[in-house]
Amino acid sequence: MTDTKIEIRNLYKVFGSNPEAAMKHVHAGFSKQDLLDQHGHVLGLRDINIKIKSKRIQVIMGLSGSGKSTLIRHINRLIEPTEGEVIVDGDNVMAMSIEELRDFRRHKASMVFQRFGLLPHRTVSQNVAYGLSIQGIGEGEATERSQRWIDRVGLAGFEQHFPAQLSGGMQQRVGLARALATDAEILLMDEAFSALDPLIRTDMQNILLDLQEELHKTIVFITHDLDEALRIGDEISILRDGEVIQQGDPQSIIMKPADDYISDFIKDINRGRVLEVRTIMEKADRATGPKMGIKTPLEDALQQLVNAGKDSGVVIGDDGKTIGKISMVNAIAAMARPDRGDEGPRYK
Amino acid sequence: MEFFSEFPELGRGDLRDFKKAVDFGFRSFSRAYGEGIENFFDPLLQFMIWFERLLINSPWPIILLVIAGLAWLGSRSWKLVLGSVICFIIIGYFGMWENTMATLAIISVATLVCIGVGIPLGIWMAKSNRVQSIITPILDVMQTIPSFVYLIPVVMLLGIGKVPGLIAVCIYAAPPIVRLTNLGIRLVDEEVLEAADAFGANYKQRLWGVQIPLALPNIFAGVNQTIMMALAMVVIASMIGVRGLGVPVLQAVSNQYLALGLMNGLAIVAIAIIFDRVSQKYGQRLQAYRKGHGND
Q1: What pLDDT shows up at residue B157?
Q2: CA A233/CA B65 separation, integer angstroms
């Protein structure tokens, strides 16, 4: 059902005066630091392999300098790779001619930028219609088609405003509407909400999730914010120093962090709110206790168990049938941090 | 010790031969190609003559109306319109109408030529660092070399008249528009350009849809500077036969006519201020969208 839309294969990016020459040191196993110290080249990305599923939200997460913005720019080839391939629907983006690439950018993949990237001399309406006007669609039709997206992101009434007259959150709505207006199947979002303050950010995440429920686009979402990643990601890839260090759905990353770096990363999250019943349930055809859906957060599941005065509950599928059971002990165990050895004793 | 007290110069005879060779070379060049070049510029000359006659022969109220209209279009300010009209009335009343029209004619044509040559050159410079590194020193020379020095070859080649005058004015006045076009395009926000690329804009769409519109305030500052510098050349251009306000100034200098010099000089200043204020207002209106609120 969920086939691969974008496949990134063995992607390398080296920044510097002679990346090709530096590549052989990379293949020889030089670390990022050694490559910089000894050869003066910066290793941006090393051997990235990611399969991005169709119609899902793929989050790529990492701190600044991890290479995440570099990576997303390879998907529509705003940055040329030093080595490797990006396959979209079976076509290698890296092998496209300039015309093919332009066509790809116009129709297949649109982008939302961290600092919005709006055209300051065009009105909201003209900005949203920008992608369409680049495709050569006449002004009348472009305005008409973009109006739908202006309404959809809640900017009706602001059509004739210039970007400088809008708040950050509203500007990014323009950015989002502009990206949606081309009807591209792929949406690339480069830290799209990072420049917004927390309340507005949550707002925009809701808008995005609402839209996704209806549009089913393949979304590649870059962020440095773990809460954001967990909230919107169907799949998460974690990037550090230009390498992917863990991939998987949010639940598995929290339950089985690949290394100390990720453990450290996830230690401050609210596990009870992020982890869902499906992650810890045991398969069973029959069970007793309060009923709950597979996507119920543990927090709520525990509340239900406590309210019902039971030790275990029934997990039901989307069709209402019993598919497993959940015990209070397992739920509590999952909420405890798996690794707190280095934090010292809890009680003195 | 003689080596340290006397600079090792080229021998006097050699130096003379060198100068002669250059002079002779250029003279034969101008003899061979002068006429061809003159013919090349002939349409421009005809246009300048026609335009100057048009300005001089049109009834003065019509010219005043046109000036008022242009000032209004540019600035949308009644004060500036009124100020411009009063200035021109005073200029006319003091008997400088015809010369002022002649000056306006050459300034307008020179500005048009500078825009026509300068903006494409600036665009080219912005596109390529190599072109920029070649053209920048040429612009430096054009701006700093004393005007009289390039008057010599221009006059040798084309004689005395409107076209050599125009060329002299343009050599001096073109650099700002080239520089500011280049600068304006290079200053356009990288992220906006990246967005244009990400949506699949081609070179033309990128240039005309993003770079030029966003560089327009800078380009316009360049046009403004070009006009100012062209006006500054009016007196020098009059030395090689360009009619206008420069001619009486030149007379005044050689005959110590204080009042004549002052009047015509101030007329040039008045025109400069009008052009400057109107074009600056227009430039500000071009960037209205940059302001936060209340300008739609």
Answers
A1: 87
A2: 67
Put the strands of the sheet holding A57-61 in their side by side order.
A109-112, A186-190, A218-223, A57-61, A235-240, A243-248
Tokens linked to B202:
């081609």
Q: How far is A66 from chain B (nearest CA, A)?
A: 20
DSSP A53-89: ETTSEEEEE--TTSSHHHHHHHHTTSS--SEEEEEET
Quick check: A120 and B199 CB within 8 A? no
pLDDT of A3 over the 80 cut: yes
What one-character DSSP code corresponds to residue B243? Answer: -
Q: How far apart are CA A104 and CA A6, in angstroms?
A: 13
Q: Do B205 and A103 touch (CB under 8 A)?
A: no
For the sheet containing A312-316, what is the strand order? A282-283, A322-327, A312-316, A291-293
The confidence score (pLDDT) of residue A338 equals 62
E strands, chain A, in order: 4-15, 42-53, 57-61, 83-88, 91-92, 109-112, 186-190, 218-223, 235-240, 243-248, 282-283, 291-293, 312-316, 322-327
Q: Is the CB of A161 inside 8 Å of chain B's CB atoms?
A: yes
The alpha-carbon gap from A221 to the nearest alpha carbon of chain B, in Å, equals 16
- What gap in Å lies between CA B152 and CA B161, rounded to an integer? 13
Residue given tokens 């010219």 in the structure block: B63
- ipTM value, please give it: 0.85
CATH number for the region B43-290 comes to 1.10.3720.10
Domain ranges of chain A: 272-335
Chain A residues close to B201, C-beta within 8 Å: 134
Q: How far apart are the first and last CA of chain B?
A: 78
What pTM was computed for the model?
0.84
Query: How do residues B54-112 score in pLDDT, each as one tens digit?
Result: 999 999 999 999 999 999 999 899 999 999 999 999 999 999 999 999 999 999 999 99
Name the residue in chain B with its Cα closest to that of A165: B292
Q: What angle do CA A277, A53, A209 make, to 5 degrees?
A: 60
Domain A272-335 CATH (choose: 3.90.1280.20, 3.30.200.20, 3.90.550.10, 3.90.930.60): 3.90.1280.20
The pLDDT score that the predictor gives to residue A267 is: 83
* A130-165: pLDDT as tens digits: 999 999 999 899 999 999 999 999 999 999 999 999
pLDDT (mean) for A217-222: 95
pLDDT at B167 over 50: yes
Neighbouring C-beta atoms of residue B291, cutoff 10 Å: 12
- Give the pLDDT confidence score for residue B84 in this predicted structure: 95
Asked if the Cβ–Cβ distance from B198 to A102 is below 8 Å, we say no
Distance from the first to the final alpha carbon of chain A? 53
Question: Tens of pLDDT along B177-208?
Answer: 999 999 999 999 999 999 999 999 999 999 99
Q: What is the mean pLDDT of residues B13-41?
A: 91
Chain A: residue nearest B294 by CA?
A165
Instruction: Indicate the residue type of A184.
Output: A
CA distance A80 to chain B (A): 13
- The structural domains of chain B, with segments of one domain joined by +, span 43-290
Mention every residue, 6+ apart, whose C-beta is less than 8 A from residue B294.
Answer: none
Q: What is the pLDDT of residue B92?
A: 94
